[in-house]
DNA sequence: AAAATAGTGTCTATCAGACACTATTTG
DNA sequence: CAAATAGTGTCTGATAGACACTATTTT
């Protein structure tokens, strides 16, 4: 029996990241059903007969956050298929997706009869998640760190309009480093199609108001924004 | 029916790359069974009940090439789950893997009752593959190009011992560029744990014999070997 | 004016690319 | 010696990081 092909059910699980109050947060749900009822887990859902897993992920993302998935950063992290990762039968295999959201209010709780919350990533890692979702979360974070270097996804954490300081904060929070203000400014304004000035300004309370930008057309970042190498050493 | 969770069968498909006579080649099989009987396709196999997809991929790799998968570069490319990608029922979803092999003789043909061949990638792309394997192949190639920059996988294309010229040829073939001999030499010898001199020399027919190296301990390449940016411009 | 934040200019160490040069082999 | 390939040295332009400086706002 172990040597024959097996039928499984497929889920798409989502690691939806955002930045709130300068802290990297992830959307987690409290599970209502077994297995792991009452435990925290990543949001996700089952593949339907008429859709691909990418479509499953986009549908779940829309249900959980109200975001339209079109033009949104939604990227496969990997497949998690250990035979014992989920006690259910038929066996459940999942494909994890990374999504990035601006700091949005969540739709009314209970839209999916589950309670969804933004929680700081560090706190989630301390508490632990159901299934193999701890591993999925850390893999997704690693992917996000790498993608920041080569793709223009950092703007997805910001609203429609943002300042360069806000964009810099994205890099600092996800990479866990402090970046030089001047050098960052130079690099993002030089990068081709990364950000476009809107002409507007945003008063910041104290100090000179910052110029506003919106995301440019480019999806890849050239030249790349390399993560400081001091951490490897 | 389309709105309920669906059971599927899972396969792991392999994009196994090697370099033969200075040409990038991929292992393809001629399908013996429907669907697509007689067509070329990527090797692959069904998930069994006692294994993960990573293990399925490693098992198939061993069956097709005779390589032991331990310590071998085997990396998920992505999941391909379009509802119409395979006409069979129950629906077939695949996870593609990238593997890299030195220039090995294949095990006796017909080990899996299928004929496996190394074919140049460009020729395979011209002829076309079954299912969505054309797309999988091009995604795997893109991944291989990117991984060459940051991981020490180039040595996996070479035998146990290799010269720096052979290693350079790997980069040149996969990136499709010509690299400067001196600068390449400097970069690979400076990179930490990338290659280790064995002390041996290999006569190349004509000319000064080249020093031999073996793969070092490092898996990530620091500093990275950046692909020349001229191609983007 | 002081404080605070945005943004610019400039110096320097480092590194990639170009390329001339030396070294060691075969014929 | 000529040819061929391996390997070294050096110059230069581009870029990242450090940091001093200017600009514009609120209190």
TrEMBL record, chains A, B:
Keyword presence, Repeat: no
Keyword field contains Transmembrane: no
Entry superkingdom: Bacteria
Keywords: Hydrolase
Segments forming domain Nudix hydrolase: 9-143
PROSITE patterns: NUDIX, NUDIX_BOX
Entries under InterPro entries matching the protein: NUDIX_hydrolase-like_dom_sf, NUDIX_hydrolase_CS, NUDIX_hydrolase_dom, WH-like_DNA-bd_sf, WH_DNA-bd_sf, WHD_NrtR
Molecular functions (GO terms): hydrolase activity
Listed PANTHER family: ADP-RIBOSE PYROPHOSPHATASE (PTHR43736), SLR1690 PROTEIN (PTHR43736:SF4)
Protein name, UniProt field: 8-oxo-dGTP diphosphatase
Highest classification ranks of the organism: Bacteria, Bacillati, Actinomycetota, Actinomycetes, Pseudonocardiales
């Amino acid at each position: 029996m172990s040597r024959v092909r097996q039928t499984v059910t497929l889920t798409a699980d989502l690691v939806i990241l955002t930045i709130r109050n300068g802290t990297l947060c992830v959307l987690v749900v409290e599970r209502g059903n077994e297995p792991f009822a009452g435990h925290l887990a990543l949001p996700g859902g089952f593949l339907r007969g008429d859709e691909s897993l990418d479509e499953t992920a986009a549908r779940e993302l829309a249900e959980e956050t109200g975001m339209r998935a079109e033009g949104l950063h939604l990227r496969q992290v990997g497949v998690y298929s250990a035979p014992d990762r989920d006690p259910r039968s038929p066996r459940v295999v999942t494909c994890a997706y990374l999504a990035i959201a601006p700091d949005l209010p969540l739709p009314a709780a209970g839209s999916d009869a589950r309670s969804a919350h933004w929680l700081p990533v560090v706190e989630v890692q301390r508490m632990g998640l159901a299934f193999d979702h701890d591993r999925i979360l850390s893999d997704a974070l690693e992917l996000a760190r790498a993608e920041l270097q080569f793709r223009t996804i950092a703007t997805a954490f910001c609203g429609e309009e943002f300042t360069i300081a806000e964009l810099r904060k994205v890099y600092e929070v996800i990479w866990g480093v402090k970046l030089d203000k001047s050098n960052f400014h130079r690099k993002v304004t030089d990068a081709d199609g990364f950000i476009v000035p809107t002409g507007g300004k945003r008063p910041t309370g104290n100090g000179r108001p910052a110029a506003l930008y919106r995301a440019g057309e480019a999806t890849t970042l050239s030249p790349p924004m390399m993560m400081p190498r001091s951490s490897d050493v």
